[in-house]
Structure formats: C-alpha cells, structure tokens
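Dear support,

I submitted the protein below through the web form. The confirmation email said the job was done, but the results page showed an empty box. After a refresh the structure appeared. I'm attaching both so you can tell me whether what I see now is the final result or a partial one.
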Amino acid sequence: MVELTRQQEADLAGYTNQPMWLLSGGVVTEEMPPRPVAEEIGRVPDVVPLWRIRAVAKQAGIYDLVVNAIAGLPEAERIVAEEVWASGTVLDRRSAILQGLAKGTGLTRKQVDGLFRKAARLRV
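What the results page shows now:
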C-alpha cells in the first residue's frame, strides 16, 4: 500500500483548499475551487479523459509512481500500458490496465476513486 500525506489523500478524495489557475477568454485568474455538492462527492465517474488522470497524478505527486509501475510490467503488458499512458484518450474504471496499475502502485480502491473524482472535476 502506498503511504500518502494528508494533503495527497485530501487531494485524491476531492476538495482542496488550494487556489487554482483558470484560463478564460485569454485571461488567467487565480480562484478557489468550488466546494463539491454532496452528490458529486459520492459519484465516481466510469470514464475520464486520460490527460485529466495524468494531470491529477502529477498534482498528487504519484505520477512517477505510475510510470515506475508501468516500467515494471512484463514486456507485452508494458508496451501496451506505455502507449495507453502516453497517448490514450480515456481511462475506464473497469480497464485491466487500470486494475494492474492500481495493484502495481499499491493504490487502494478509495485512492483510485478519489483520483477519478478529482480528474472529473478539473476546471480548464
């Protein structure tokens, strides 16, 4: 199991009290993220764009953990996982690759759920 700091756990679980940068109409502003409503907190999306997962993994400080888990896979699986991670368009909660990476990184189901929730809520 991966040991995360309280901030990393909070980030994966959802709301963060850190300001975020928003680009709107060519203007960058710094704003506090909106607090999620109760139904958003409990809902885990089935599919999210993979760029969002990569961004959230970087924010949570686990990006390198995922890359290292991919590097440790047997060659045939590693080749596919590298392509998905680098060039894939979406990540499905039920995918074999996600399940393997979760196991390889030691992330719990709760942590993966938090990663998906946060990825779905990214504002761009």
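Response: this is the final, complete result; the empty box was a page-load delay. The chain has a mean pLDDT of 80.
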